[in-house]
Amino acid sequence: MLKYNPSEIEKKWQRYWETKKFYDTKDSVEGKKNYMLLTEFAYPSGNLHIGHWYAFSLPDIRARYLRMKGYNVMYPTGFDAFGLPAENAAIKNNIHPEVWTKKNITYMTKQLKSMGATFDWSRMVSTMDPDYYQWTQWMFLKFYEKGLAYRALTSVNWCPKDKTVLANEQAEGGKCDRCGTEVMQKELSQWMFKITQFADDLVDGLKDLDWQETAKLGQINWIGRSEGAEISFPLTKKHKVLIIHGYTGSPDENKYPWIKNKLEELGYEVDIPRLPNTNNPDQNEQVNYVLKNYKIDENTILFGHSLGAVVALKVLEKVGKPIAKLVLGAMAMDPGATDSRLKNDPRPNWRNFSWDFDFEKIKKLTYEVVVLSDLKERKRIFFMKYLSEKLSARLIEGHSVKEHFTGPTEPMILNNLINSIKVFTTRPDTIFGATFLVVSPEMAQKWINTHGDLAPPEVKKYVQDSLKKTELQRQENREKTGVDTRAKAINPATGKEIPIWVADYVLGHYGTGAIMAVPSHDERDRAFAEKFSLPISDAPLRDKSEIMKLLKDKGVGMPHKTYRLHDWILSRQRYWGVPIPMINCKTCGYQPVPEKELPIKLPPLKDFKPADDGRSPLAKAEKWLKVKCPKCGNDAERETDTMDTFVDSSWYFMRYTDPKNKKEFASKKNMANWLPVPMYSGGAEHTTMHLLYSRFIAKALHSLGYVDFNEPFLSRMNRGIILGPDNQKMSKSRGNVIDPDVEVKKYGADAVRMYLAFMGPYEQGGPWSPGGINGVYRFLNRIWYLVSGISYNKDKNGGNSNEYRDLDIAIHKAIKNIGDDIEKLAFNTCVSELMKLLNAFEQAARDGYKIQNTKYKILLLLLAPFAPHLAEELWQTVLKNKKSIHLESWPEYNQEMLSEEKIKLVVQVNGRLRDTLDVKRGISENEAKELALKSENVKKHIEGGVKKVIYVKDRIINLVVGIDLTK
RNA sequence: GCCGCUGUGGUGGAAUUGGCAGACACGUACGACUCAAAAUCGUAUGGCCUCACGGCCAUGUCGGUUCGACCCCGACCAGCGGCACCA
């Protein structure tokens, strides 16, 4: 008898399966349902670790099982090939990232093949392949077209060591997640994806997904939706409001008298110039009229409505001095661009209005710009968005407003005219206890930018100092700091005047960047109030909806949602990534690369180290860099930043469905064959990154009509982590690393796979136990000897089915339980079942039964997904089957076999076990009672007399004695 | 601080979801084989009392609901994870 030699048989069968292309998946197969089993593809770090085995070999059990159940199963894999570690390793070893990465891919492919998994290598994708990243670039362009990708100046996480920007998700706890260096805040212009546009959908969409609760909650926490209200606290400083009416308008027109009246009630001074020639306006004439007759300074709030907004912008541009606030309501559009009504307007002066503004200049002249959209015409909304982007303005979309703001009362305008500090709160019901306001240093800085002269020096100093600090430094010091701005606001609920402070415990990037402080209800506010002796009010709570109604009626508060989630900053100042397909032209600004020029290939570069000025190494690729502007044809430069690799990896599963497509990232038809992914397993560390990004990309593509699904992953299993034998995280320094190659050499791939399956629940992981894998290895040996020890044609006497009944029952139970448990991904209990089944076989053999060939076959079929090599070897070599075991069907179980005729009935007295009876299945309560009462041990315990009998058929009979049931 | 998860033998873990707690393994002890060891096979293995039949205790702690609770409810303790000066 030959010994079980895994390394020999495993190589043999791996070659056999590969040559026969067993696992190259067809797009569809007649009569079979498609099933894509997705696991996160690997980063080509250079070596497979035990975690990879856990990630890939366990889902493979399910893949093999589903194949046997008749599915057309795709089990794809690939490589997430771009990224920082490749570049760092490359720099360290003085080898090109591409060479390094390709070498790793080759080596890891070999390692992956040693698992004996059913990977479909014909569909392998690698994100560094231009055929792949051309579509990553294409998606960027499509997103750019629709405003889902944009460039903006933001405060970003900057790693001084890696010299690159990091997403919030990559800078958790204020440390770079690659190198651990403390992250700094830096103001940079970056490309971003508008993931916040889908924030609600990303939260609400989870409801219908079959994901682990922990994964769902992780995302919900990360998105951090808070529902509350945005409330305006008017400043006590009385401003002058200058209202510029629109085309054919006048100070007497609809809402103006009402607004004027209301503002004056609040103590504002209001001017509404009666503009000359309102029915046939001339821009210069109107602008000059305003400039001549009205004083405009830092106390002025300027409001322009419709065509008046155009006048207002020109007025401000000409004044050239800061004003308090600029409000543009329902602004008329550039006639050349969109509005045919204007274009065809017969009045020549109208058309001669200039829409050419120096937006940068205007931005610097205002502390705050608000754009009010009337939300009635789509073109107009588009223009309002454009305008608010140009001016970095708050865009307020009107709800239930009169068309073009022509109602006799317009609270939305009034509310936004008042110069106020807006706060976000989840507790509007505490507003009566709000005794001061606190603004963040970021918000204060904006105000200082335009009104620097007015700010007290200690405020300037405090703001400067705190903005220098990193996020981490600001959070380290929990002791409250802050200064009084000396400005005052009115609490709109109490009407009382309250101070405004600036303090760094208020964050600039959350909510409005300012809070109403309620020391009586908020610990932080209390600590602050106590430290600086600010008033604390014990005003009682009010009913939330009552408060909201009050604030709404006053026009100072609206329900509002805020998110912790920020837009996805995807620019990376790095070489080893996908170039962002944009061109920067001095005259035309950023222009998209024409689609037909894709892919923009990463230029070969010898020196790919990041520059000290923070510019991407791509800036050194001079030939590549210099291009013509696609719009004006003048000299221009390519964008030198590359994309965050999470962009690459957020759509790779779509490519699996159509990996060779040259015309699309994947055809809708092919995607329909496989997507959305029914089952995705991977690491819990990706909950708030990869999984969230992928969901966003899918939703964005869906909204643009390129994919038919809105959620990419219907179910998700986060797998656990394999720890070292010492129950600690594996690490070289601890010396507790288990090398899968070593284990495979010692015990074989089958044993490694099966032990990983056996060690515990998949979502839990656990410590690697050398004894544990040895136990599994022993089990495989026992199978080997059991099956290869049989001799044929000796089962002639085995026809007596009664003799085989115990074994048959064990077999049928195993078929059912293993199938059920694989479906549940409860691999550990599957292995237990297989062990029990082997015990039953061995018991039968020990009892002298001759075991039929067909029974061994079932044993091997059940084993096949778990130990595919051993099962194949015994199936073909020992049992002499011509066809591979992996082309066989999963065996059927016989329901009758599962319900044994004889069962053990548990007899309890007062719920305590007193005896077990061997009885026939299905006996009646009376029969059971009679039998139970005969039991000697039961008799001893029922002396008080049986008061009540609980009978659960085929399970238990419980005799209740001496308990007063009337109580 | 908020949210969530988990507590079962010496160890990893089972338990048909309210019906025999500890399946299946690891480990340990003893035995068989062996000159011996390893490997393999067999027996035992939650604790306490008992020669035994059997009994009592036992699923983090305390209490409750129930004929009956690892499972449901309440309070607490411990560990892990996510978020965190997020208003």
UniProtKB/TrEMBL annotation:
ATP binds at residue 732. InterPro entries: aa-tRNA-synth_Ia, AB_hydrolase_fold, Leu-tRNA-ligase, Leu_tRNA-synth_edit, M/V/L/I-tRNA-synth_anticd-bd, RBBP9/YdeN, Rossmann-like_a/b/a_fold, tRNAsynth_Ia_anticodon-bd. Residues 13-216, 566-760 form the Aminoacyl-tRNA synthetase class Ia domain. Its EC number is 6.1.1.4. Its main location: cytoplasm. Residues 811-924 form the Methionyl/Valyl/Leucyl/Isoleucyl-tRNA synthetase anticodon-binding domain. GO terms for molecular function: aminoacyl-tRNA deacylase activity; ATP binding; leucine-tRNA ligase activity. It holds the Pfam family Ser_hydrolase. It catalyses: tRNA(Leu) + L-leucine + ATP = L-leucyl-tRNA(Leu) + AMP + diphosphate. GO terms for cellular component: cytoplasm. Belongs to the class-I aminoacyl-tRNA synthetase family. This is Leucine--tRNA ligase. The gene is leuS.
